[in-house]
Amino acid sequence: MKLVLILLVSTGWTLCASQFYYQALMDYVENRLLAIEGHMHLWQEQLRQHHGELQDLHKQSNKTMEALRQQHGVLTKDMAAAAARVERVERDMDFVESRTSPRACANQAERVVEQGVWSQEESRGDQDQGWEEIPSRVSDCVEITSAIRSAKILKRMGASKGVWFRDPRSSKVYVFNGTAGDTVYQFESVKEFGGSAAGALGRPIKLPSDWRGSGVAVYNGYLYYIQQGADVQVVKYDILRGEPVDAAILPVESHSVVYSLNPETLADIAVDDQGLWLLYANSESEPNINLAKMDPITLDIEQIWDTRCPRDKSEAAFVACGTLYVVYNTRLASRSRVQCVFDVNNKVTSEEAPLFYFPRRYGAHASLKYNPEEKQIYSWDDGYQILYRLSAKRKLLV
Ligand SMILES: *[C@@H]1O[C@H](CO)[C@@H](O)[C@H](O)[C@H]1NC(C)=O
Ligand SMILES: *[C@@H]1O[C@H](CO)[C@@H](O)[C@H](O)[C@H]1NC(C)=O
Question: Would the pLDDT of 350 be above 90?
Fold first, then answer.
């Protein structure tokens, strides 16, 4: 009996002690949890704070970026305006320079011009004889134009577009101001043209109809020009007698232009040492420039070639020694370049076809007229009359 009692008491104690122990453990865990909760709360608070700061920073940088972007835009505009102004000033400076320093470009071909002018004035009686004596270095066609050797701004006059050139036979200069009109102006020489006041236009020659675009040429005393009425025609005009002598209808639709960047030019006329050439496109759907050899007496077309030089982005072209050089640019004028060459005699291989650029910064050419005697080009660029001297290299001759 006594033993049973002791056993009961000891069991009670044990139960009691384990209950205490359990309670303490619970308390401990609960405290820990509370502490952790406290920490988590703190972290959350910190996180919220950081997030807010980040957002502020983002807003701030967004604003800064916006301001920078605006400033960049303004700067870009300013730069473009300044560049345009600099270009203008540079051209004016070149022009002034070329007017004030006659020795700036004085070399071989320049002397040919002056000699031509002077020899003609000195020997009025036998001027043709004097002209025959100038050796034509390209007539054998062993050379191909490979670069622009130099440029000389001769004058600034007239509208932004126009045509000017020197007749190799008479050394007279012809000026077509603008893109159409019934008058052409004649000067006695390049010297007289260069020395004349900017507003003076020389001796006017009134034509029986309007010329149009850059399709004009003088050959053997006759003026050839493109006239647009119901048809597109080439008119042959006797300069000395002052009357038209012939006209021929061209196979050209009245709205198809030969150079896409100079839409006033429906067809172009070029002169080289082999004769008279016509450049045109039959129709608007024709992608390439056609080249035709024209009989200067009868105006008959002797032969036609598809040059495979695209009309797209072309601004002008010239023919030298039976080879066509097409000059391309971009719609916002950048640097003009010869990028397509076509030789009617198939003597130029595609590997040696030259790609060459016109000098820096000059914009869009309204016309390029090659003079086979002087091997130079008379060009009209944004109201400037510029002479380009050409370099040649020997053809490979296959
Ligand atoms: C940041 O700028 C862009 C516009 O550039 C805007 O669409 C966006 O809402 C801006 N963000 C903030 C947070 O302001
Ligand atoms: C050339 O043509 C333009 C526009 O067609 C005209 O404003 C200008 O007066 C002409 N120049 C001269 C020198 O007559």
Answer: no
